[in-house]
Amino acid sequence: MEFRFFELYRNAEYLRLLAEGAGLSAALAIGGGAVGLILATFLAACRNARIPVLAQLSTAFTEFIRNTPLIVQLFIVAFGLPLFFHYSWPFWAHALLALTINFSAYFAEILRAGFAAIPGGQVEAALSLGLRKWVIFRKIILPQAIAMMYPSLNSQFIFLFLTTGIIAEIGVPDLTYAGLFIDSRTFRSFEVFFTLTAIYILMALLFKFLLSLLHRNLFRWRNAG
């Protein structure tokens, strides 16, 4: 069997498609992860709240997302919601919304565990000093929970990023879509998917490195003293 990688690497159009696809995959993953973390914080706070309705709704949403395939969520967001609510978005926006929802459910479960691990004495001490509950949550509980669960959030983000190739199923020109397009033109499946694998590995390692730098800069206080 003869490998012909040069058919990919010598074609400027194919290289451009791979570069643009990798950039879009990274952008959607970062956007979905960032907004998903914000939504996850709200969901986790609701699950720990003493208001039964909020806790039950948050639990139901989280469990539904975590127990259904991403591709099902993607199709519901891309084809179901526009049908019901009569709006039209580009497919990349549907993909971003689906990824945000998916990321938020997994992040919420991790953060919930972090919130539960905060010693109750800290909250009681803060209340005795007259701090408001919102201030306690923002200044005491949330920073510690994120710092404590950061490795888990990091790993979960990398894992979810590697699943984003599924958005190619609705026509989003991400990295996987670029590879499928090139494969349909060259019929060099091994070379194409070997290249995709290498790019995904490099991107995952780059994300891991950048997240490690972010961790060292954001949570220096955990190593202070």
Question: Brief description of this entry?
Answer:
The chain has 225 residues and is mainly alpha-helical. It is 80% helix and 0% strand.
The amount of beta strand, in percent, is under 5%
Low-confidence stretches: none
- Mean pLDDT across all amino acids: 92
The number of helical elements comes to 9
CATH superfamily: MetI-like
How many domains, as an integer? 1
Oligomer classification: single chain
Total strands: 0
Relative helix content: over 70%
For the sheet with most strands, the description reads: none
Structural class: mainly alpha
Radius of gyration: 21 Å
Name the helix and strand elements from N-terminus to C-terminus, one letter apiece: HHHHHHHHH
